[in-house]
Amino acid sequence: MNDKIKPTDAELEILRVLWQWGPCTVRHVHERLPSDPPRGYTTVLKLMQIMSDKKLVRRNEAQRAHIYEAAVSPTQAQGSLVKHLLEKAFDNSTAKLIVQALAARPASPEELAEIRRLLDEAEGEEK
Amino acid sequence: MNDKIKPTDAELEILRVLWQWGPCTVRHVHERLPSDPPRGYTTVLKLMQIMSDKKLVRRNEAQRAHIYEAAVSPTQAQGSLVKHLLEKAFDNSTAKLIVQALAARPASPEELAEIRRLLDEAEGEEK
DNA sequence: CCTAAATTACGAAGAGTTTCGTAGATACAC
DNA sequence: GTGTATCTACGAAACTCTTCGTAATTTAGG
What is the CATH number of domain A2-70? Predict the structure, then answer.
């Protein structure tokens, strides 16, 4: 269904701004984007127009400065990306992916506890 | 260090063959690649030549049919890819990524138990 | 030898991504 | 009104990835 959601890195940065701040003009997104690397205003505009064509964002043209909002949720985008990585690089082994995730960025004890809690939930749904 | 390892999807498929079968000729890789989608022999050859330039694989030219082997381990490649995804799509939250991984592909009770064991290990190293 | 098969090298084309300059339209300030 | 700033649209360039055809080389059969 949402398997086709595969935002590129540049698109993801824009989506993150929209997820965090809600509907924005191009100018607002441009201002809130990481300043490194610096991007031209029209670069961001063009990207957002393309994302609109791809249905990654919706835009409201009522005002002169169009208002863009994310058309995919963080969960949809993240789920699709992680599913893709699982298939292409981890032989669909969730366990292998988790090992690498923990190795790449060690979790704090609090996070580990949180993760255990999530595992309990996952097991609960197993039925 | 190995942050620069970012194999594309097509490159990953070739790496997977080399990881599973060990050093191979282009012909062997071509035969062992998934038949869907079908790829021309020279397409695979070209990809592997590029991968050699990128140092993703090494090649031995002693024989007429060069022998290629992976120059990066599964752990290196997977770790680099997951780290990248963590940064770009998950705000560096390992927990969020694990939630999405479990949602994208529910783990069996055996896997869940395995994952708990890995968490224990991770906690052990915490110091 | 001479041909047929296999292999590498090379180049080019098409698609997708990211970049940005320029032009035209609109709003705002004075 | 006139000029300045802002915004969108458009197109093109640079880059990467993926594809594969063709040519040149080497090997193996007969």
Answer: 1.10.10.10
